[in-house]
Design brief:
alpha/beta, Rossmann fold
């Protein structure tokens, strides 16, 4: 019998596997609730019909919601980060810190691999979260994950369009996850793009389900002048995977 999907995809201790399974189950239960489905439908209808922007009431509704990247997408993301040897990752939209654990596992293991080869390297996951209560929950989950992610994650609280411009950013970013309110996707990418190494991976979540909301972002990454090669991975809701290739022929 094949092992559970998480154990096949992710290198982690039984404690971390159990933590991730528990968090994904809680997130999935929220996402499948009628109230949450109705919330998303209202948001999409309001945007399609009236171009209604995100409101404070929506922030209030989402304050206690995981909105975590789905488990299968997290496995894919982790394996991409491992296979690319990513050392410096930016996560735009941390929420309760579930996807951050996967990214931190990948970075920590990539660092260990390179040090085993005699290289002197460090790595970080720059996580971002505007809501203080979510940041606190994320820190609790990372503490529960323990040494496997400790020391790898740097959480920047506040408006990410400001915190990602602050001192201390890595000179080179290997991987960018965009799992945020869609109008922030393109401004965030433009902040990080000058730091992207050639071959860096950019993932944006829910690009199929929320395609009209992502229009400016998708137009940008599909424009050859901006040096991305991109495809949509057919996970639920869509997952846009782009690779930064500034010297690629167009």
């Amino acid at each position: 019998m094949a092992p559970p999907a998480g154990r096949s995809a992710i290198s982690a201790s039984p404690r971390v596997h159990a933590l991730l399974a528990r968090l994904h189950a809680a997130s999935e239960a929220q996402e499948k609730s009628l109230s949450q489905i109705w919330f998303y439908l209202k948001r999409l209808i309001s945007f399609y019909l009236f171009r209604t922007p995100w409101a404070a009431s929506a922030d209030d509704h989402m304050r206690d919601k995981f909105v975590a990247l789905e488990e299968d997408k997290c496995h894919f993301m982790y394996l991409l980060a491992r296979s690319s040897g990513a050392l410096n990752i930016v996560e735009a939209g941390t929420s309760f810190g579930v996807s951050t654990i996967y990214l931190a596992l990948a970075v920590g293991q990539n660092v260990a691999d390179q040090r085993a080869q005699g290289k002197t390297v460090t790595g970080r996951v720059i996580a971002t979260e505007k809501e203080p209560t979510k940041a606190a929950r994320a820190r609790e989950h990372w503490a529960e994950a323990g040494d496997e992610v400790a020391g790898v994650i740097e959480l920047r609280e506040g408006d990410l369009l400001e915190t990602l411009k602050m001192d201390g950013m890595p000179e080179q970013v290997d991987f960018l996850l965009l799992d945020i309110w869609t109008p922030l996707a393109l401004p965030t990418l433009k902040i990080i793009q000058p730091r992207l190494r050639k071959g860096a991976v950019v993932l944006a979540d829910n690009t199929k389900m929320a395609r009209p909301l992502y229009k400016e972002y998708l137009d940008y990454i599909h424009d050859p002048a901006n040096s991305f090669k991109t495809t949509e991975v057919p996970y639920s809701g869509g997952l846009q995977m782009s690779v930064y290739l500034p010297d690629a022929s167009v």
